[in-house]
Specification:
- It catalyses: [protein]-L-isoaspartate + S-adenosyl-L-methionine = [protein]-L-isoaspartate alpha-methyl ester + S-adenosyl-L-homocysteine.
- The chain is mostly helical and about 120 residues long.
- It has 4 helices and no strands.
- The protein starts with about 30 loop residues before the first helix and ends with a helix.
Length: about 120
């Protein structure tokens, strides 16, 4: 039957340009392009994952301290605080005024502002 794919042998080995190849197992250009597209997509996804891992590891919460001053100095030492101005402002603003527990732990904290608490 014309255009039908057969599971056996007996093809002439030529590629008719059909979408699925012929019975001899020849691969069409479309199949190669499709495979390359999937491969490139996978590589791009892996690059994104590696980038995110690098960012997460760089931002790992490893700068905590026993005091406000120690926390801020550790943040600077580990490259989280990069400018003198940010360092000065952070040093002047004690987290214990805003965080309920573990204010000097280098991790996200729930913020409670004394100004906003006076309205409740």
């Amino acid at each position: 039957m014309p255009g039908a794919r057969s599971g056996g042998s007996g093809g002439d080995g030529s590629n008719s340009g059909g979408s699925g190849g012929d019975a001899s197992g020849a691969v069409t250009v479309w199949e190669v392009v499709s495979l390359l597209g999937k491969l490139l997509g996978t590589v791009a996804a892996l690059k994104v994952v590696l980038y995110l891992l690098r960012v997460c590891l760089a931002m790992a919460w490893k700068s905590g301290g026993a005091s406000h001053s120690e926390l801020i100095h550790n943040l600077r030492k580990n490259g989280i605080i990069k400018t003198d101005k940010v360092f000065e402002v952070m040093l002047a603003t004690d987290r214990s005024h805003y965080a309920k527990c573990n204010p000097y732990m280098d991790s996200p904290q729930s913020i409670e502002s004394p100004v906003f608490n006076s309205f409740s």
